[in-house]
Write a structure and sequence with these properties.
By secondary structure, this protein is of the alpha+beta class. It has 5 helices and 6 strands; from the N terminus they run H-H-H-H-E-E-H-E-E-E-E.
């Protein structure tokens, strides 16, 4: 039951919040998608150069991650990326669901190559990420990675 709660609650919050959208939410600043995509790229670029502190700074302490292995916390993800190096990536087909001027959900296709714990890999995935501006800084509070063929 607890596992479902951690997955479902963020989506309930998104749905509830989006239902209460103000006029400014329906017409978000043009830079919202640019800001959020830039932060997503900043995180991926940090993984390319092994900048774990930079990656960590872009991730909220209370962030939730979901992938085929299950639900993970920021601490879980940070332990895993310590043995991970991204060599190249591409982002395509970005979509934005604006929730406010400082809160948005993006979804995109990711193609990546790299080394994970001593093994070369190449993968494609569908990514969704929820970003919020806290204390003037963008942080990722939720991310889901779904492998694709």
């Amino acid at each position: 039951m607890h596992r479902i709660q951690y997955i479902v609650l963020p989506f309930i919050a998104v749905i509830a919040f989006s239902g209460c959208a103000s006029a400014s939410t329906r017409n978000p600043p043009a830079s919202l998608i640019d800001d959020i995509v830039a932060k997503e790229r900043e995180g991926l670029d940090a993984l390319k150069v092994g900048n774990l502190a930079g990656f960590s700074n872009l991730t909220a302490d209370d962030a939730v991650f979901v992938d085929p292995h299950g639900v993970a916390s920021k601490a879980d993800v940070m332990r895993n990326v310590a043995g991970f190096r991204l060599e190249e990536y591409s982002i395509e087909h970005v979509k934005l669901v604006p929730l406010s001027d400082a809160f948005g959900l993006i979804a995109y296709d990711l193609a990546e190559k790299g080394n994970s714990h001593g093994r070369e890999f190449s993968a494609k995935a569908c990514i969704s990420a929820l970003w919020v501006k806290r204390n003037g800084e963008w942080v990722c509070v939720f991310s889901q990675e779904t492998p694709r063929k």
